[in-house]
Amino acid sequence: MGSARAYLVWSVGLLAYVVGVLQRTSFGVAGLDAAARFDASPAVLSGFVVLQLLVYAALQVPAGVLLDRFGAKTLVATGALAMAAGQAMLALATALPLAIAARVLVGAGDAFTFISVLSVLGAWFPARRVPVLTQLTGLLGQLGQVLSAVPLAAVLHGPGWTPAFLSAAGLGVLSAVAVLAVFRESPPGSPAGPAAPTPREVLDGLRSSWHEPGTRLGLFTHMGTQFSGTVFGLLWGVPYLVAGQGVAPGTASLLLTLLVAVGIVAGPIFGTFTARHPFRRSYLVLGVIALTAAMWTLVLLLPPPVPLWLLVALVVVLALGPPGSMVAFDYARTFNPSTRQGTAVGIVNVGGFTASLLVSLGIGTVLGALGGYTPSAFRVAWTVHYVLWAAAAVGIVVMRARARHNLRAAGTAVPTLREYVRTRRASR
């Protein structure tokens, strides 16, 4: 456990996820190019990503069920090949229907990848390392966004659209080959896993996972923390920075890179906190939501263009969302038995991506109604955030109370915040 072989397996899974994030976010840096290539309005352009996210979110629970039945290796390899096919199709597309079908394939392949990579951590590493490795998987995976923002964008604005997306497709094929060669669900000699569940057992597991308050606590956690940074990096960040704030395209790409870099630094810190203070995880999450809402409020209250330092501060705060969302998967892991981990993680992962597609669609709709990519239109469009933040915060508070009630009823000591603070002071 924790051997060099374990880290090799994790690294290959991480590689597949990095390439998957590249495929997922590639359309974000190509947004304005896509608008010109396909003669797409803001609403139609947002529809590309909304459809991709819709497919991703809709497949999360089925992907979790398939994961429990067929294993991580099969799903990660299948996902990589599906995304590669989608990117190759997009590279050659000149009409909207083919481009839309391409993003559907990317969304479908993406849905299989992350939860499958996470599922093997418990088999290869000690439990105490899993929260930090979960954070590292999620955050290092965002290096794929850097690959979109820098080299892919350079190819897009140099050789052009087709070479850029064919290159992305080639990386997908290479990652699938690496997964088939190296990736494994468990160490050699591990006890055989449980038999594949019957359809009745699948439905029972899905029902049990949903009725577990800890699973829904994870869902609302993922919803509240993940969507703002995802929408920013996936589609609307570059158009907003360039057309809404007058930032140069090169500077916008650097800001997307900063978004990833800060998240990578914050991830291990959040993971360590989660491992050491499991009953205080929700306070970390609610703090991230509150800080993100406050920073957007400050930026939107000021007439554009706002100072560059404030946009940098906004990106730094948005970067805390992904590591905050990783806490959601720790809820899924700790509140559900191993036999339904995939299903629980799939349910949790629906939260943030459903919120992301709703906000992406909302921003595109508002921009279309207010005249397109103008600073004033963007200023109004970003306000669609607030409804989702409020819903997520309420869901977290309610589900936290129910989860703690169930733990206490089962005989688990759950200290209140006052008791926790008192104990911490006494131990110093």
Automatic annotation (TrEMBL):
<keyword id="KW-1133">Transmembrane helix</keyword>
<feature type="transmembrane region" description="Helical">
    <location>
        <begin position="139"/>
        <end position="158"/>
    </location>
</feature>
<feature type="transmembrane region" description="Helical">
    <location>
        <begin position="106"/>
        <end position="127"/>
    </location>
</feature>
<keyword id="KW-0472">Membrane</keyword>
<keyword id="KW-0812">Transmembrane</keyword>
<feature type="transmembrane region" description="Helical">
    <location>
        <begin position="164"/>
        <end position="183"/>
    </location>
</feature>
<feature type="transmembrane region" description="Helical">
    <location>
        <begin position="217"/>
        <end position="238"/>
    </location>
</feature>
<keyword id="KW-1003">Cell membrane</keyword>
<feature type="transmembrane region" description="Helical">
    <location>
        <begin position="7"/>
        <end position="23"/>
    </location>
</feature>
<dbReference type="InterPro" id="IPR036259">
    <property type="entry name" value="MFS_trans_sf"/>
</dbReference>
<feature type="transmembrane region" description="Helical">
    <location>
        <begin position="43"/>
        <end position="67"/>
    </location>
</feature>
<dbReference type="Pfam" id="PF07690">
    <property type="entry name" value="MFS_1"/>
</dbReference>
<feature type="transmembrane region" description="Helical">
    <location>
        <begin position="376"/>
        <end position="398"/>
    </location>
</feature>
<feature type="transmembrane region" description="Helical">
    <location>
        <begin position="344"/>
        <end position="370"/>
    </location>
</feature>
<dbReference type="InterPro" id="IPR020846">
    <property type="entry name" value="MFS_dom"/>
</dbReference>
<protein>
    <submittedName>
        <fullName>MFS transporter</fullName>
    </submittedName>
</protein>
<feature type="transmembrane region" description="Helical">
    <location>
        <begin position="308"/>
        <end position="332"/>
    </location>
</feature>
<feature type="transmembrane region" description="Helical">
    <location>
        <begin position="283"/>
        <end position="302"/>
    </location>
</feature>
<feature type="transmembrane region" description="Helical">
    <location>
        <begin position="250"/>
        <end position="271"/>
    </location>
</feature>
<feature type="domain" description="Major facilitator superfamily (MFS) profile">
    <location>
        <begin position="9"/>
        <end position="404"/>
    </location>
</feature>
<dbReference type="InterPro" id="IPR011701">
    <property type="entry name" value="MFS"/>
</dbReference>
<feature type="transmembrane region" description="Helical">
    <location>
        <begin position="74"/>
        <end position="100"/>
    </location>
</feature>
<dbReference type="InterPro" id="IPR050189">
    <property type="entry name" value="MFS_Efflux_Transporters"/>
</dbReference>
